[in-house]
Amino acid sequence: MQETDIRPGRPEHGGRYTTVTQPLYQPQSGVLTVQYSPDEHTRLIENPPRFTWIPAQLENDRYTLQISRSPQFAPEETETVRSVPYNLYTPDHALAPGDYYWRYALLLSGDEEAAAHGDAGGEDAPRSEWSAVRRFTVPAGLPETPLAGREERYAQAAPAHPRLWLQAEELPAFRRKVQTDPAGTGWDAFYERSVAPWIGRELIAEPLPYPGNKRVAGLWRQMYIDCQEALYAIRHLSVAGVVLEDPALIARAKEWLLHVASWDVQGPTSRDYNDEAAFRVAGALAWGYDWLYGHLTETEREEVRGRLRRRTEQVAFHVIERSKIHHVPFDSHAVRSLSSVLAPCGIAMFGEEDKAKEWLNYTLEYYACLYTPWGGADGGWAEGPMYWTTGMAFVTEALNLLKKYTGIDFYARPFFQKTGDFPLYCFSPDTLRASFGDQSTLGDPVSLKTGFNIRQFAGITGNGMYQWYYEQTRAIDTDSEMKFYNYGWWDFRFDEMMYRHDYPAVEAAAPERIEPVKWFRDIGWVAFHAHMDRPDDHIMLLAKSSPYGSISHSHGDQNGFLLHAYGEPLAIESGYYIAFGSTMHRNWRRQTRSTNNILIDGQGQYAGTNKVLNMAASGAVEAVERHSGYSYSRCNATAAYKENVPYLDRYVRELYFFNESYVVVVDTIDLSEPGSVDWLLHTLHPMKLGAQSFLMRGTKADLDGRFVYCSSGDMRLTQSDEFPDVDPAEIEGLAKQWHLQASTPAARSHRIAALLVPLRKGEPKYVSYFMDDQDHGVHLYFTEDGVTHKVEVSKAY
Predict the structure, then answer these.
(1) What is the dihedral of CA 110, 111, 115, 120, to 10 degrees?
(2) pTM summary value
(3) CATH superfamily ID and name for 159-371
(4) Quick one: DSSP state of residue 47?
(5) DSSP labels for 211-275?
(6) Rounded Cα–Cα distance for residues 742 and 694 (Å)
(7) Which pLDDT tens digit goes with each residue over 103-136?
């Protein structure tokens, strides 16, 4: 359908008028909001482009969108999309390569009910003036990832139950597979360990409120584990009962379902009281309602569906109306609730509750356009690997459910094609304490669920290195299934059974030809690797300077680095995971002093609770290079310190990884007034301190560190095994860690060069060095086994 912009009073279409009745409010975008996109600066990564803008009003906003090859929006070159319900849009077809222009207008209607059902977008619908016109270019060869329009996207959705995972038409074939090959389908393990325990288990009591309604971390965790167990009982008994056509299992599943459905929708398991509990209860009701549909009376269906609708409404209201993730997308739990609640609950109630289609539409349009706010084309995840694990666990389950029910395949999007690279390079399976961000598994082996996730992407992409990663985690992490960060979140036997049914086996391929230095531009992480395929020889250096700053589950660690070598964590992510919001979390883990970084006059980067300041406390990776004999990165964290150190003019950190063997760290700090710098490094073992050196002796490897140059004079080295400002009760009985602090004299400019040499236990090795400063720069030379490299450091004046 085509449309020409008509001035007030000018006839169109045989004397009818389209009258501009009000100006269009076009707010300035901010660091926390969606952006006006695309424009001439946008590097498109898929076709069609995704259109986003700032809402023109706070509520009841619907739009007309125009896309044109003509800057004047000539009718024959213009496509008009009417009645777009939110400030985002994904076209239903790819665009031919070339230059385009787009604009939008706010639809005006006094009949909000009509607007809500799309009836306010006809040809004569009144609208505001048009927005500013933006130009963009569609390159050739982009992956084509359109989203079917609202009228077509549910064409294959069948009314029969079940719909979650197996469709009704798939059941007979799966029953036959279970009968003929129970081990090969994964059914044997699923039944024995994930179904049988719930047959005779006493029903879980409805969780009680917190004492005085004040949240207690231990009770909060127990509450969501209770709800997770309720989900396991209902989902697994229901699936097993229906697949086996076993009346006793079905009766037991119904007993669990009706029991949990009776819990107070406004009580302790409501979204506003404990959202983790609410997500699990909603999911449990969805799976039970869907799989037991044919075995419930009409009265039971209405009862369960009514409770499920109200619980889904709670979550949807928070996501859409309060959190408004289509305006401000950086809400970790709200985004995850699309996967854990709106997708499965919307599918379960589709065609039976009016709002179910609305919730599914919102979810699909968000996944198509804004997902993920935490990364981009490189597949990175700014919140770190454990929140990648959680996010991917739920979103892949949701995308699998949606693909089965609607036929819409989001895995073709570039992010999903590449995101397996993020754990591969930044959370390698043999490493410990060697990745950034909040981590419930801190100090444990790489999570087994991370391995299950990356296998999902092996099945999607055929990448054998992802399958290798999965097999490594299965071999390494053999005893964590009952730890809270696994048992309280997912069931591996159910995961295994679904994967075997839906995806092909992929042959593992060791990562022998990985990129020696991998830059995740989307999140500002840089991973250096040598010999990832041989854990005993593997060296990993990871650096970060992120545009996401310290928002959400990120920390005040811009320009930080981590070092793992020969099976030993050397420069670590320090501290412990006690609980989100604990004093360890707030006062140590999130703060710069817990990282391998610098403090200026004792001050680090902003890592408080103001999201605007969190995002502003950002870093930038300015360069990543690969040369003969070494890899290099340059990161700038000046903005990250500005809130706490306003007199910082510049802080740049350069990393050189020479000969796949040793590291040189060069820091450039310029201040507008004199200040002292503390250079920090954290280890699991005490260090032997020299005048300008330190030696950490580990169990498999040692770390030899030396300050080879400091422009402001000799540094004073001290170490501590304390965690200041952390409640001692939180860390009672936990192993100590050691924190190096190398302090400079006060100066307006500082240049610090540090040499870090990982040493395999029992093997002699050293790197010699000397300095030449006759010119305007300082030239540092490093030699190992006859191979010399030069590093130039600018002088401080």
Answers:
(1) -70
(2) 0.94
(3) Chondroitin AC/alginate lyase (1.50.10.100)
(4) B
(5) GGG---HHHHHHHHHHHHHHHHHHHHHHHHHHHHT-HHHHHHHHHHHHHHHTS-TTSTTSTTT-H
(6) 10
(7) 999 999 754 444 444 455 555 678 999 999 999 9
pLDDT digits (tens, 9 = 90+) for 736-750: 999 999 999 999 999
Query: What is the rounded CA–CA span in Å between residue 759 and residue 662?
Result: 9
Phi and psi, residue 604, nearest 5°: -110, -160
For 567-580, what is the HEC assignment? CEEEECCCCCCCCC
The answer to whether the Cα torsion of 737, 422, 530, 444 is positive or negative is positive
Q: What is the pLDDT of residues 73-101, one digit of tens each?
A: 999 999 999 999 999 999 999 999 999 99
Mean pLDDT of 221-238: 96
Phi, psi of 783 (to 5 degrees): -130, 130
Higher-pLDDT residue of 14, 246: 246
How many Cβ atoms sit within 10 Å of the Cβ of residue 31?
A: 18
Cα distance between residue 600 and residue 63, in whole Å: 49
Residue 749 per-residue DSSP state: E
Burial of 750 (0-12, 13-18, 19+ CB in 10 A): buried
Domain boundaries, the chain: 1-146, 159-371, 517-794
Class of domain 1-146 as given by CATH: mainly beta
Distance CA 239, CA 234 (A): 8
The region, left, alpha or beta by phi > 0 then psi within -120 to 50, assigned to residue 19 is beta
Query: For the domain 517-794, what is the CATH code?
Result: 2.70.98.70
What is the full DSSP assignment across 83-148? EE-SSEE--SSPPPSEEEEEEEEEB--S-HHHHHTTTT-STT--B------EEEEE-TTPPB----
Q: How do residues 314-352 score in pLDDT, each as one tens digit? A: 999 999 999 999 999 999 899 999 999 999 999 999 999
